[in-house]
Amino acid sequence: MPVTTPAAPEAVSSPDTAMPQDFGALLRQDPEIAGVLLAEAGRQANTLQLIAAENFTSPAVLAALGSPLANKYAEGYPGARHHGGCEQADEAERIAVRRAMALFGAEHANVQPHSGSSAVLAAYAALLRPGDTVLAMGLPYGGHLTHGAPGNFSGRWFEFVGYGVDPDSGLIDYAQVRALARARRPKAIVCGSISYPRHPDYERFRDIADEVGAYLIADAAHPMGLIAGGAAPSPVPYADVVCATTHKVLRGPRGGMILCGVELAERIDRAVFPFTQGGAQMHTVAAKAVAFGEAETPAFALYAHQVVAHARVLAAGLEAEGFDITTDGTDTHIVVADPGPLGVDGRTARERLVAAGMVLDTCALPYGDARGIRLGTAAVTTQGMDEADMARIAVLFGAAVRDDDPERLRTEVRELAERNPPYPG
Ligand SMILES: *Cc1c(COP(=O)(O)O)cnc(C)c1O
Fold it and tell me: Which of 53, 341, 371, 379 is most exposed, with the fewest beta carbons within 10 Å of its own?
C-alpha cells in the first residue's frame, strides 16, 4: 500500500488507549443483542451469500467501524469543521479522499455520503432543480429506486423518463436512449443499474449527453469494485459525476462516495454537506480508507477478475441446468436468470433456494411480468471459493429449484460454505 498513516505514537503504545471494543463484554452486558449478532455471523458462515449487492468486508474494515472514531462529530470538511477536536477525523478523511482519487484516477472525491442513495441524492442536488427531466434506466429493466421510483425522492421531485433494453438481447438499446434524449431534452442522463450484467457503454452515453447538453451521471454502485480492480471499464473519464457505494464488490463498509472533476467539486461537496447530510460518520470514512487501501493491491485486482470469471462459470452452469440467462451471460459479478423453463417463477425459485441455504434476490426480467433471480459472486469469491465450487453451486441451484430433497441440499450447501469460512479463525 503506497499510503502510510502517520499514527500518533503515544496512541499506539499507551495501555490507556487500548481499543475498547470487546465482544465478550457485549455478551455479558447484553446477551439478547449479542445472541442476534452471533446468530447472524453463523447464518453468514453456514449459507451462501449470493445477493449481488453483498460482500464480506475485511476484519481491518470491521475494526475501523468498531473504533472510537464512531464517537466523533465532524460536520464540514478537513480543515473546515464545525466542531473542535477533529485532527484525527481530518486525517482519516484526507487519507480516504487521497486513496479514492488515486484508485479511480479522479480529480475529486467526496467520501462522506452515508449510502449509495445519499450519493445519488447529492449528485442530483448539485446538478438539478426540482421538476427537471432526467433520463435513466427504467425500473422494470434494472433502474435503482433513486432512478425515478414513485415512492423515492427521485420520482417525487424530478420528471424521470425511462430507457429500456432490447427484449431479445437484453442489452441497452442505445438508439432508444438517443431518441428519448433528443425528444425529452433531459438535464441529466443516468447510467447504472442494479441488475444489468454487462458494462454500460460510457462513451456512447457521453456522446448522447453531449448531443442534448445533459450532464452524465454514472451510478456505478455495483461495479465500483470491479473498476477498482481493473476488471470493468471506468466511467470516470466520461461521466460528469460518478456515484457509488463502498460496500458491494468494492468490499468496504456500508456507505457511498462521489467522484467528479475539479469544476464540479465545490458543488458536489456542498450538496453532500450541508445540503443532504449533517455530520459525516467518521468511523465509516476511516473504514472506507482501509477498503481503498486494500483495493489498491494486486490481490484485489486478482479478486475482481476472479469475481467475473466465477460469474461466467455460474451463468454457464445455470444455462446447462435449464435456466434462461439474460444477455446470454455476464461481464460482471451479476447473473440474472429466468427459472421459467424449470416451471417456476423467480419468487418460488428464491423461496426454494433460500430454503436450501442459497440466499439471493428476485429481480425484474427485461421481458414480460414474471420475475427472475439475480445473483452475484462477490461474497463467495471473497470467502475463497473457486470455479469448481461455482459449477457445483449451479447444479445445486437446478436441484433446489426443481425441489429435489431440500434436506440433502441444505447439508451440502452448509458443507460447501463451511469449507470456505468468510472469517477463518
Ligand atoms: C446499491 C445501489 C444504490 C444504493 O445504495 P444504498 O447504499 O443501498 O443506498 C444506488 N444505485 C445503484 C445502481 C445501486 O446498485
Answer: 341
In angstroms, the CA 346 to CA 364 distance is: 9
The domain segmentation of the chain, as residue ranges, is: 68-295, 298-419
Distance linking the first and last C-alpha atoms of the chain: 25
Catalytic status, residue 294: no
Question: Which ligand 1 atom sits closest to the C-alpha of 256?
Answer: 7
Mutate to test the pocket of ligand 1, among 114, 121, 219 (most ligand atoms within 8 A of CB): 219
Domain 68-295 = CATH 2.40.50.100: no
Which residue in 258, 246, 259, 229 sits closest to 286, CA to CA?
246
Nearest to 140, CA basis, from 406, 294, 411, 363:
363
Q: Which residue's CA is minimally distant from atom 14 of ligand 1?
A: 221
C-alpha cell at 248: 458491494
Of residues 75, 91, 173, 412, which has the active-site annotation?
Answer: 75
Catalytic residue among 81, 248, 350, 352: 248
pTM beyond cutoff 0.85:
yes
Ligand 1 pocket test: which of 146, 241, 250, 284 has the largest number of ligand atoms within 8 Å of its C-beta?
146
Cα separation, 173 vs 182, in Å, equals 14
CATH T-level topology, domain 298-419:
Aspartate Aminotransferase, domain 1 (3.90.1150)
